[in-house]
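Request:
Um, any thoughts?
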Amino acid sequence: MKFNIKVGILLTKTLYLMRHGQTLFNRLHRIQGASDSPLTEQGIADAKRVGDYFKRHAIKFDHAYCSTQERASDTLELVTDQPYERLKGIKEWEFGVFEGESEVLNPKPDPERQSHGDFFLQYGGENDFQVQDRVVKTLTAIMERPDNQQVLAVSHGGASFMFLRRWLSMDEIKRRQIRFENCAVFKFSYDDGKFMFESVHNLDDPE
């Protein structure tokens, strides 16, 4: 933990990792990845609801970030009007030639890695560990910045899933019934290069 000697208090760093709002491809059940599609009316409305949720609970951010994809930056701009930085490291999992195709073409999970594993590598995409490593590296770097105490980062479903998998086992994710819905907000505490999952808020959850 960071200790402020001057005022004698313990400062806990906090990351709020949010998935973008619903997009056209989400609604059509198409694989999105590195490609992009616009937010739907529901996606816009839901992002605004998250902004209202933060206001009601007096949750404020000293810095905000999003991926380089428009669906993430558009979501962030609906949540808050504060300045932000776009980061390639938290963009969505790349699925190669499968992007834009129906989600029914997604492979069954690798039985050992309990994810898509290496499947998309042969089609010009990424594997699970590549996604996880870049997301963890990027979010760790921003939380290590001295003036970053309470941070908002808007990313994507696959990227957020692989980030969470670094800190929780798949069995634990299932036990806690953690969902990766559009506009889900994952709260993590951060200390000494490690994140600890605290909670997740979906729009239909009770407050």
Summary: The helical segments are 24-27, 41-56, 70-79, 128-143, 157-167, 170-175. The longest helix spans residues 41-56. Residues 8 and 59 are 23 Å apart (CA to CA). The radius of gyration is 17 Å.
